[in-house]
Write a structure and sequence with these properties.
The protein has 124 residues and is mainly beta.
């Protein structure tokens, strides 16, 4: 499975961006898909996860109510709509997928497939 993240950019605080994660290859091996982010000098942080069917999603407290994840298995895409962006959202954002059902969705080590990352910069 190959993942390609896109959609990052520079936006002012309060603005919006939409990230997309496109999957190719053996996509039938993909289970839950998560988005993570990593700011300079900080540890990788889990942001949100969506189940294989797309019916269940869980958000980190820091983004709850502002970010929305969606999944289209027919198109093999997972999108992350980010609204009301804050400077503290600035980071490189990565999409990642598990290859089996693993409850520890916030643990980046449980994700097997990773995209290359896309930079999100929010100016104040």
């Amino acid at each position: 499975v190959q993942l390609q993240a896109s959609g990052g950019g520079l936006v002012q605080a309060g603005g919006s961006l939409r990230l997309s994660c496109a999957a190719s290859g053996r996509t039938e091996n993909m289970h839950a898909v998560g988005w993570f982010r990593q700011a300079p000098g900080k540890a990788r942080e889990w942001v949100v996860v969506i189940s294989r069917s797309g019916g269940v999603s869980v958000y980190a407290e820091a983004v709850k109510g502002r970010f929305t994840i969606s999944r289209d298995n027919a198109k093999n895409t997972v999108d992350l709509q980010m609204n009301s962006l804050k400077p503290e959202d600035t980071a490189v954002y990565y999409c990642a997928a598990q290859d089996r059902p693993v409850p520890a969705y916030g643990d980046w080590t449980t994700y097997v497939y990773w995209g290359q990352g896309t930079q999100v910069t929010v100016s104040s």
